[in-house]
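Dear support,

I submitted the protein below through the web form. The confirmation email said the job was done, but the results page showed an empty box. After a refresh the structure appeared. I'm attaching both so you can tell me whether what I see now is the final result or a partial one.
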Amino acid sequence: LFDVVASAIGSGVTSTGAASIIAGTWSINQVITEEPIRDPSIFMLSTFDPVRYLAIESSATSAANLEWIVREFFEHAQPAGASPFEICSELVASVDPAGDMPIYHPFLYGSQQNGRARAGFYGIAGWHTRAHLLRALFEGVVFEHRRHVETLR
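What the results page shows now:
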């Protein structure tokens, strides 16, 4: 097994039709199938066991975004012993969704559809805080996972 297949098993996904979504450095979304899916829109196909397959949709659009923002803007600005990741999670939880929220495209390393795509915040207003930007980042990552899941469907 390689890490992606092992992560499905490790998350308890072993039944045909079951899906595993992993927010690691990469956005890894996978489903167990009886037959190989021969569709160019599916990123990757792997054997799962001697009679089943794992359809995989993934891209570098997940936690790599959080790691970047923590490294560049939070890691060195926190009190000693404080987890910058916990602080980011608390900031995200402090913001209620609103119609004027910024949008984040999580393409720090390109996208599956376009290697030249880049990350960006859009719709930032003067009243938005770093908590709003973090929530936008989290939502951008989640929506990219959703796009992968929709492709698998």
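Response: this is the final, complete result; the empty box was a page-load delay. The CA atoms of residues 103 and 122 lie 5 Å apart.
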